[in-house]
Amino acid sequence: MIERLFIQKGLKKIKLEEYFRSELKRAGFVGVDVVKTPVATRIIINVTRPGLAIGKKGKTIRTLTKELEEVYGFENPQIEVQEVKHPELDAKACVDRIVALIERGYSWRSVVYRVMEDAIASGAQGIEILLKGVLAGKGNRKKKERVAKGYMKKAGEQAYLVDYAKGVAVPKQGAIGVKVRIIKPDVVFPDKRNIKELLGKKAKPEEKGTGEEAGGSKEKKTEEKVEERVQASEESAEEKKETKEEKVKAKEKGKEDKKESKKQEEKHKERKQRESPTKTEKEESEQKQEKACKKKGEEK
């Protein structure tokens, strides 16, 4: 009997979702939550465009409450409209957007990539879009296309943390099935851990008796050894740096010494040239002496 009651509740919710999807298609219906209270039953509708869901002066909400009370048998229903703040991160909203644009005649490739880029830009960890049907045009074979970006979980208990939705677009060439999986930015998987955080945390031994004190002393010794190794590595790195700096300084000194020696050689050459007469001057003096000797010989 209890199983039947749960099945009836599930069927009632499915019918309610179908009704709201048909009535609030333009408002961008995403989902519905039913909360029963002793006074009334709260029906929370999640919508991307709340203005169209409320209607002019609350007209649509009044008609919806009447039908819920008469057709579906809800006692004193109270409808609340909630706006979906980030429709790019909601799988159902993304499916509805893709279906609407494909049915209008837009290219499925441009629509899918636009939706994917919007989701990643708004902070999604990962997104996967699957399309199956007549994608190439009328008369062509059916095919399957997969577009994905980021991180995605497919198996295990953690796959339930992925937001999943599906829908069907019916353009002129034929039906196209759409499936969307999105991992929202606030989702934390238990198997994914940040290594930096784990390394940053230091284990502190607790004092609980003599046996645990020995274990704590062992841990302290290991920590001291690790610290000594780290210090030794740092000292070796510093020594290497110092040796490199000394080599660089020695090279610079050698270059400066070479420059100074060259300058001294040049100065020495200049001095020699000034002190010793050049070859041309010597030859001219010798020629003058020879001419003077010839003249003296001729006069004699």
Report on the structure:
The chain is built from 8 helices and 7 strands, in the order αββααβααββββααα. The longest helix has 67 residues, at 209-275. It has 300 residues and is an alpha+beta fold. Helix 4 packs antiparallel against helix 5. A hairpin with a 4-residue loop joins strand 1 and strand 2 (41-47). It is elongated. Residues 204-214 have low confidence and may be disordered. A 4-stranded antiparallel β-sheet has the order 5-4-7-6, covered by helices on one side. The termini are far apart. Among the domains are: 2-84, GMP Synthetase, Chain A, domain 3 (2-Layer Sandwich); 89-183, 2-Layer Sandwich (Ribosomal protein S3 C-terminal domain). The protein has helices spanning 2-23, 50-54, 59-70, 91-104, 108-121, 195-200, 209-275, 279-299; strands at 29-36, 41-47, 77-83, 126-133, 143-150, 163-169, 176-183.
